[in-house]
Design goal:
Blueprint: E1 2-8, E2 11-17, H1 27-34, E3 44-50, E4 66-72, H2 82-94, E5 105-109, E6 112-119, E7 123-127, E8 132-141, E9 144-152, E10 156-161, E11 189-195, E12 204-212, E13 216-218, H3 222-235, E14 241-247, E15 250-256, E16 261-266, E17 268-274, H4 284-288
Parallel strand pairs: 2-3, 10-11, 12-14
Antiparallel strand pairs: 1-2, 1-17, 3-4, 5-6, 6-7, 7-16, 8-9, 9-10, 11-12, 12-13, 14-15, 15-16
Length: about 290
């Protein structure tokens, strides 16, 4: 099995080329690949498969050649991943499976069709599902009770601004935040935010950490950055603008208008290799059986 490793602001992925959908990708295989001690290591797996060859992509095969089959590191799959989509596009371009287009490169995802464009030598920008702000909701973390805003970016988010006196860097995200399963029956990515300093060329600057469902804390979350930007603009009484979102892995830029949402930042491929199948190492799940 061939693989490539890539990341977007530290949000890292194992990329599997499987154009004809021949690979039997299972939750156990995904968890093994993403295991940071026994496998390659990653926050998730990106399978590169033709839309026409994947049952969840075939409906979009007339609009996009490639379907991003994204799986979380625990073997579950998600509707959308903003950093993953940018790394996916980087792989398509660098491997010659696609060429840049002025109209934007279309990619099929479980959240629908997205488009990407190249910005400079390293950055990829992708048009995301437009964030939809929902109702207030609560989250608990180590005795800290927070009220945040639910946001749908093709996948569920809860954006929680920290109160004065609580340091973002001091949060313990080794355990999942407590949320109401009746409000988030499919789970939720929880973003914790603090204001950043003024930044030229932007309409706002936010610092963010995130606990992702299915992956625990990650160094970055693209859909989470979009959710955070939408809340920041709402709180500033703005309908549109550009928000810089600093995550532990770097900086993402989100530009929102009334009908579009573009996420931009670096997308980097760092290694390629091959693995034998079946994999020659056990996973924690195997050891527990």
């Amino acid at each position: 099995m061939e693989f490539t490793k890539g990341h977007g602001t530290g949000n890292d992925f194992v990329i599997l080329p499987d154009p004809d959908g021949a690979l039997d990708l299972t939750p156990r295989l995904v968890a093994a690949l993403c295991d940071r001690r026994r496998g390659i290591g990653g926050d998730g797996v990106l399978r590169v498969v033709r839309a026409a060859k994947h049952p969840e992509g075939v409906a979009l095969a007339g609009e996009a050649e490639w379907f991003m089959d994204y799986w979380n590191s625990d073997g579950s799959y998600a509707e959308m991943c903003g950093n993953g989509a940018r790394v996916f596009v980087r792989y398509l371009l660098d491997s010659g499976l696609a060429v840049p287009s002025g109209a934007g490169l279309p990619v099929a995802t479980r959240a629908g069709l997205v488009r990407a464009r190249v910005e400079g030598e390293e950055d990829i920008a992708i048009e995301m599902p437009h964030p939809r702000l929902g109702d207030p909701a609560a989250a608990g973390l180590g005795g800290l009770a927070l009220t945040g805003t639910a946001v749908d970016v093709g996948n569920p988010h809860l954006v929680c601004a920290l109160p004065a006196g609580v340091e973002l860097a001091a949060l313990d995200l080794t355990r999942a935040p407590d949320v109401d399963p009746a409000v988030f029956p499919a789970g939720v990515n929880v973003e914790f935010t603090a204001p950043g300093g003024p930044l030229a060329g932007t309409d706002g600057h936010v610092l963010m950490r995130v606990y992702e469902r299915g992956s625990a804390e990650t160094l970055s979350c693209g859909t989470g950055a979009c959710a955070v930007a939408a809340v920041a603009l709402r709180d500033a009484d703005r309908d549109a603008g550009t928000i810089a979102v600093d995550v532990p892995g770097g900086r993402l830029t989100v530009t929102l208008t009334a009908d579009s949402c573009w996420l931009a930042g670096p997308a980097v491929l760092i290694a390629t290799g091959t693995l034998p199948l079946p994999l020659p190492f056990p996973t924690p799940r195997d050891l527990a059986l």
